[in-house]
Every structure is written in C-alpha cells, then in structure tokens.
Amino acid sequence: MKKILMYRWRAYNYLDIKKTFEKMGYEITELWQHLENYDVDEAFAKQLREELRAQAYEFVFTVNYFALIAEVCHEVGIRYVSWTCDNPLISMYHESVFYDTNRIFTFDETNLREFQAMGVKHIYYLPLAVDTDRIDAMLAEYGRQEAYANEVAFVGSLYERNSYDRMEGQLTEYLRGYFDGIMEVQSDLYGSNILEPSLTPDILEELSEHYELEKSSEKSFSDLGLIFSTTTLGFKVAQIQRIRALQELSKRYAVSLYSNSDTSMLPLVQYRGGVEYWTEMPQVFHNTKVNLNFTIPNIKSGIPLRMWDVLGCGGFLLSNFQAETPRFFKEGEHLVSFYSRDDMIEKVGFYLEHDTERQRIAKNGHDLVQKLHNYDVRMAEMMEVLSRN
User: Fold this and answer.
1) Which fold has domain 132-372?
2) What are phi and psi of 158, to 5 degrees?
3) Beta bridge mates, 61
4) pLDDT confidence of 192, banded at 50, 70, 90?
C-alpha cells in the first residue's frame, strides 16, 4: 500500500484531507511533534529524518508550507507536498521554496503569480474545498437546532489583539497619520489591497527606526514591507472592517457574533461565544438566515475556507467581493457579494425580507459545491498534477 507522511497541526481542513487520501487508497502516518519554529527546530528535524529513512513514503504532506519540513525532505530526497489555506504565508518567503523536491499548492492566484515571478517552478493553483457529505450527515442527525438560529450572524475573530495597537505609540505623528489614512481607505475597500503598495521606500526607511524586523532564519527573505503590511496593518484593518460593519448592522437588525474576541465595542450585538468547528459551526451556518464573511485583506484574491464552509452547510452567504469569486460562483445564484459597508447593509435588509430568494440561493450554492468543489475533486486534481510533475 502506498504511504503518505502527514504533519498534523491545528488546521481546520486537516481531517477532511486525511480522510480523502485514505479513500484514495493511501496509508497515512501522522507526525504530531510540536514545532518550536517553522524554520529551525533540530529536534523536530531529527525525528522527521529518522521517520523518512525508516519507511518508504510516496511524499510528505502538510496543510500550509513549513520551511523546515521542506529542508529535511530536500536533504533526504523525497517530495514535499503542501496546500496553503492562509495567505500570505511568511514561511514561504524562504530559500527552501525553490527546491525541486517541493510541490506547493496555493488557493490564492495572486500568491501563485508572485512566486512564479520569483522563479519558483513547482507551485500550482488549487482552491480550497468542503466536505458536504460529512456536513449533511451531521446536520441530518442533529435536525434543526433553534439554539443556533439567527437573523444575521458572523463567525470569526475581531482581531482586537493586533500588533499595531501595541506599537502605535512608538511611531512618529507622521507615520501614525499616514497609516491611519491608508487603513481608513482599505477598511471600506473590498476586492483589492493597497496596504503593501502604500509602503514606499521613504515610509519603510522611517518605519525601520521604530519597528524591529525579526527573522527566524538567515534563509528567510521576507522583508519589512511584507511583514508590516500583513501581520500589523492587515490584522488591524480586519479589526476595523469587522467592528464597524457589525456596529452598523446591529443598529438595524438582530446580529449574532460567534467568537472568542472581546465584544465590548459591540453593545447591540448578541454575543454567542466561540463555536467548535466540526459540530457547532455547521449548525450556525445552516440555521442562520444571512451568514456574513469578511475576508482579511491579506488574502488578496482567493476564496477563504469560511466561504466554502458556509455554502457546504447550505447556508446563505453574503461575502465581501473577492477577485476569484466569479471564477467559481454566479452572483445572485450561488451567493451574494457586497462591495462596500453600505452595500452590505442594504443587501442584508433585502434578503431578510425575501425568504424564497434567499433559500433558493443557499440551495444552489450548496448543490454547486457538493458537485464540483468537494475534497474528492480537489485531491484528484492534486494527484493529477503530481503525476505530471
């Protein structure tokens, strides 16, 4: 039997991927050891080397890219296959990304083109997926749960613990004003990202006096513009977008929030606490009239996992527009996009008042992803690429 070694961490889609590999006839061995550092962890590297030399594996697989695993696989001479579910992955900005033993799959086409332009040969586009059969069976078992019924709901973080708030006081008045300006523009701009292009050489030079860029390895080629626009400005913009949207919506409609975040800034929102991904979240999506999605600006064009999950649960999805949305979905047929905060508020009101239309779109979205965007389809696409490359 063919074997795959999978590194297991807390990725939401890990178990669905593992199950699909097993359906395809693979025997899976899981490596659970905690990684202290994505780039350098000699204890982990030693264990991985020993495992790869002890058994014959067709390849090593991870959800998201780990430079350390790429290094060991290159050293041993075995293919390393990864599939990203986050973007950008700072760990991909590493010299190991050029190894010919890598087979990297990314769900974001902007990310694909960026790395192809760098000269990375073995990187491929593969959108995310959803296991509708698993979800449908679970929902049928539980039946309709009124405890998870909502008019409007959002499941996700408010990013209130972001690094920008912690370091803002160290910046000059000019830098604070500049960043406040570009974040204000970005906060109501959907479908494009202006953060990294706005970090000009002059701004980065001044910022470098107040922001210490830490790299986990000498082989990392991530720079100040990438790190600051992603892990600092990107998370702060996500906070601004989500809090403002929920504040405005809650003045007009009954809005529920499922999150582990601090909700003190949202007094009119009904806070429901966090939900477990496998058993509770599908019931929220299935039993909510309007499910909201706010894609963090760091995901520049791709379809995030939350969108697939809502549709796979048979929920009606109202999401910010993403550049890749038209590639997979027909607007008003499988989901509904919004293009500004005001547009979102108007569409929430419309679809709360039009039950038949909302239910039709939700069913169409579910049926589409069930047929074309399940893990069997995706993993078959992945294996077809691997067979040719």
Assistant:
1) Rossmann fold (3.40.50)
2) -95, 0
3) 6, 81
4) confident
CB 240 within 8 A of CB 183: yes
The C-alpha torsion from 262 through 264 and 265 to 270, rounded to 10°, is 90
- At residue 142, the pLDDT reads 83
Contacts of 217 by beta carbon, 8 Å cutoff, 6+ apart: 39, 40, 67, 94
Same fold, 3-129+375-388 and 132-372: yes
Query: How do the domains of the chain map onto residue ranges?
Result: 3-129+375-388, 132-372
pLDDT in tens, 9-55: 889 999 999 999 999 999 999 998 777 777 888 889 999 999 999 99
* CA 364 – CA 276 distance, rounded (Å): 26
Instruction: Give the pLDDT band of residue 263 (cuts 50, 70, 90).
Output: very high
Q: How far is CA 17 from CA 21, 28, 38, 73, 328, in A?
A: 6, 11, 21, 21, 21
Are 271 and 298 spatial neighbours (Cβ–Cβ below 8 Å)?
no
Q: Of 338, 329, 333, 331, which is closest to residue 293 (Cα–Cα)?
A: 338
How far apart are the C-alpha atoms of 270 and 2, rounded to whole Å?
Answer: 50
Nearest to 100 by CA among 77, 117, 82, 83: 77
Q: Please state which CATH number belongs to domain 3-129+375-388.
A: 3.40.50.2000
Please answer whether residues 228 and 196 qualify as being in contact, where contact means their C-beta atoms are separated by less than 8 angstroms: no
* Helix spans in 107-172 (H): 109-118, 132-142, 163-167
Is pLDDT at 88 greater than 70 in this prediction?
yes
- Looking at beta carbons, which pairs linking 374-377 to residues 24 or more positions away fall under 8 Å? 374/129, 374/130, 374/131, 374/132, 374/133, 375/16, 375/17, 375/19, 375/20, 375/129, 375/130, 375/131, 376/20, 376/23, 377/129
d(CA 267, CA 7): 42
For residue 126, the number of C-alpha atoms closer than 13 Å in the C-beta half-sphere is 28
Q: Taking residues 340-345, what's their average pLDDT?
A: 96
Average pLDDT over residues 92-115: 97
Distance, in Å, from the CA atom of 136 to the CA atom of 158, rounded to the nearest integer, reads 29
